[in-house]
C-alpha cells in the first residue's frame, strides 16, 4: 500500500475552519461532487477535532481507490513558522470511488464525535488519538508475519524529542 502525507499549517496561524476548508480542497477538488457535500456536512465536527490539536501527531486518514492519504496539522510555534508544512496538490483524487475517512479526536470527545459523524456520513468515522486504524493493524500483522519480513520501523517520539 502506498501512502502520501500532507501537513497543514493550523492554529493559531489559521483557524480550524480555514484548515478544514484547505483539507477539503485538497481531497475533493470538484466543488459539485457528492464527496464535497459529505465533507461539508461534517465540517463542524472536523473543525472541533482540528481545534483540539488532534491532528498534531495522529493523521486524518483518507483511503480508497488510490494511495492512502495521511493529513496532519501544525500548531503553535510550528504553525507560525510553517517550515514543516506540506500543502501541495495531490496527483490523484482521494475521494474517488469507494473512499473512507478516519478522523482522530480526543478520547473524551470520541462518543459524541462518532455519533455526530454517523448521523450524516457512512464514509467518515472517528477514532481516539493514539488509536491505530484497523486496516493499519492488519497490514502490520501481515507484513511482520511473513518469512523474511522486516518489522516496521517505529519511532518513540517522546524519547526522540526529550531534551
Q: Which features does this protein show?
A:
single chain; 163 residues; alpha/beta; 5-stranded mixed sheet; 7 helices
Structural class: alpha/beta
Low-confidence stretches: 137-151
Q: Quick one: overall form?
A: globular
* Helix and strand sequence: EHHHEEHEHEHH
How far is the N terminus from the C terminus? 35 Å
The biggest sheet, with number of strands, parallel, antiparallel or mixed sense and barrel status, is: 5 strands, mixed
Radius of gyration, CA atoms, in whole angstroms = 16 Å
In what order do the strands lie side by side in the largest sheet? 1-3-2-4-5
| Total strands | 5
Strand content: 15-25%
Quote the average pLDDT: 88
Q: Which range best describes the helical content: under 10%, 10-25%, 25-40%, 40-55%, 55-70% or over 70%? A: 25-40%
Discrete helix count? 7
Describe the structure.
The chain is α/β, with parallel strands linked by helices and 163 residues long. The chain has seven helices and five strands; from the N terminus they run βαααββαβαβαα. It has a five-stranded mixed sheet with strand order 1-3-2-4-5. The N and C termini lie far apart (35 Å).
What's the arrangement of secondary structure elements?
Blueprint lengths: L2 E7 L6 H12 L6 H8 L1 H9 L8 E4 L4 E7 L1 H6 L18 E6 L4 H11 L3 E5 L5 H12 L11 H5 L2
Parallel strand pairs: 1-3, 4-5
Antiparallel strand pairs: 2-3, 2-4
Structure summary:
By secondary structure, this protein is α/β, with parallel strands linked by helices. It has helices spanning 16-27, 34-41, 43-51, 76-81, 110-120, 134-145, 157-161; strands at 3-9, 60-63, 68-74, 100-105, 124-128. It has a 5-stranded mixed sheet.
Amino acid at each position: 500500500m502506498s501512502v502520501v502525507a500532507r501537513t497543514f499549517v493550523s492554529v493559531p496561524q489559521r483557524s480550524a475552519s480555514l484548515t478544514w476548508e484547505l483539507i477539503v480542497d485538497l481531497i475533493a477538488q470538484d466543488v459539485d461532487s457528492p464527496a464535497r457535500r459529505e465533507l461539508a456536512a461534517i465540517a463542524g465536527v472536523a473543525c472541533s477535532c482540528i481545534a483540539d490539536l488532534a491532528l498534531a501527531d495522529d493523521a486524518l486518514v483518507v483511503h480508497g481507490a488510490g494511495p492512502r492519504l495521511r493529513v496532519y496539522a501544525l500548531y503553535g510555534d510550528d504553525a507560525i513558522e510553517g517550515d514543516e508544512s506540506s500543502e501541495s496538490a495531490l496527483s490523484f483524487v482521494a475521494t474517488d470511488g469507494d473512499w473512507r475517512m478516519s478522523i482522530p479526536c480526543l478520547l473524551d470527545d470520541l462518543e459524541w464525535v462518532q455519533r455526530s459523524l454517523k448521523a450524516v456520513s457512512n464514509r467518515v468515522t472517528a477514532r481516539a488519538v493514539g488509536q491505530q486504524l484497523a486496516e493499519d493493524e492488519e497490514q502490520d500483522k501481515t507484513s511482520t508475519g511473513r518469512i523474511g519480513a522486516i518489522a516496521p520501523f517505529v519511532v518513540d517520539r517522546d524519547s526522540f524529542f526529550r531534551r
